Structure formats: structure tokens, C-alpha cells
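Meet the record:
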Amino acid sequence: MSANKLRLGPLPKTESIKLTFACPVTLKADLDRYASLHAQTYGEAVEATTLIPYMLEAFMARDRGFKRSG
């Protein structure tokens, strides 16, 4: 898979805070698979948990209802 087919690009270095959440086993498997594809695309291994904040940020940035509410 090429870089232009993944919505999530290379990860920036940022300050973060730790959160804990539960998800279905099937979602965790998909996150692990996405992390694997991301590593293949950008040449740097990354844990699925590292990708979650960036995925949520991208989702919220594209949510028109959320943008209108703020």
C-alpha cells in the first residue's frame, strides 16, 4: 500500500496525556493491522495505541456537526 492511500500521514512529535479506553476485540485487530500498514508505508514501527489520538483528531476535524457546534 502506498503512502497516498493512508489517510493518516507520518506522525508528528507532540506532548501528550495518557488516557485509557476499552474497545471491541475486532477494532483492536483493525488498529493493529492499520499500524502494520502505517509502519510499512513510512518505515517506522508504531503501536496501534500511538495512532489512536491522530485518528480521533482527524475524525473530529472532518466532523461538520462538531465544527458547527464550536
Notes: Residues 22-69 form one domain. Residues 35 and 48 are 5 Å apart (CA to CA). The mean pLDDT is 88.
